[in-house]
Amino acid sequence: IPRSTDDFVYTAYHDLNSIYSFMDMLVAENSNLVSKIVIGQSYENRPLNVLKFSTGANRPGIWFDTGIHSREWVTQASGIWFAKKIVTDYGRDPVLTDILNNYDIFLEIVTNPDGFAYTHSRDRMWRKTRKPNSGSSCVGVDPNRNWDAGFGGGGSSSNPCTETYRGPSAHSEPEVKAIVDFVKSHGKLKAFVSIHSYSQMLLYPYGYTSTPAKDKAELHELAKKAIASLQSLYNTRYTYGSIITTIYQASGGTIDWTYNQGIKYSYTFELRDTGRYGFLLPADQIIPTAEETWLALMAIMEHTRNNPY
Amino acid sequence: KKTFEGDQVLRITAKNEAQIFLLKELSEQEHLGLDFWREPVHESLPVDVYVPFHSLQAVRVFLRYNQIQYNVMIMDVQDLLDDEEREMVKYRT
Known about the structure:
- The structure holds two protein chains of two kinds.
- Chain A is of the alpha/beta class.
- In chain A, 36% of the residues lie in helices and 16% in strands.
- Chain A has an eight-stranded mixed sheet, sandwiched between helices.
- In chain A, a hairpin with a 5-residue loop joins strand 1 (34-41) and strand 2.
- Chain A is globular, with a radius of gyration of 18 Å.
- Helices cover 43% and strands 23% of the residues of chain B.
- Chain B contains three helices and four strands.
- In chain B, strand 2 (35-38) and strand 3 (47-51) form a beta hairpin.
- At the A-B interface, loops of A face strand 2 and helix 3 of B.
């Protein structure tokens, strides 16, 4: 058992208990910068933990979440690395330091803890939440189709036995509702990045409609800049664009809802890998993935800081 | 614990809209137990599909019959999972 976050093995995958212990250690070691807030409980009563990085009161916020699809293990692993990176770089990296002197950063490393625990104990390929569906033997909802943004439209399923089952109603999943409540109560989130894997894309709204987002030009330019930054490290090829034009129509998605709530810089990532391992990315690729993604996240945060609204 | 011996992930490259349509039809065959890791959307995007061992032959026949190109992205899903588990145990130890 690692005694500190310096001993923590960032090049390996970890189970939920280890990740939650890591969060507690990080908070204990950096209590002036990091706190843990619990925004709700999962269906199976696990805490929905969010790390808050803050240097002052009443700041606007930037949100990152990883692991809403439980089998995408590189995302939770990257989230751990981001958390350590933030505490390491604060006070050293002038850009991050300035961002943190003006904004709070919120990081939910395991957005779907029930699903994640299930991937470790029963089925490595589990994607959805773990709430039973009445009238069906199939369990779980796709939490990235459960948001009140074109809910029930094309690119989501009404069949509980599919991987893109949208759920009985918008925000029916406690894991989703907790974020909805948090975003609304906070009221000052200025950027929101939801991180998935594995098709190497950076996407912005919309997914449920082909009507372009009103900030499309700016979102596109920022995506281009963020991806250029990401590619500068290992030359990983990424594409970018709106969800519906770049991959497919997807209704009820996270960032469509956050964008409609007024969070202009709403993005969703698809991290590595493409063409070799899919969701089974070997652990030795965690750090390169996290490192390159961090550069893009920094670009988004820096732009957010430089363009207040 | 669910295991995945002999299950494969195929990377499919559709060459036109008709083949995308066929792949969408394939995805609706619930009895095959397919899991589209990357869905059939457009011929410019590859399609990755997890195929349980019991459906491999049927899927391969379907793809060949319709002259849809594919290659094996993951030969045996359980092999990769065993590697992953070994790595985790190594670090825990």
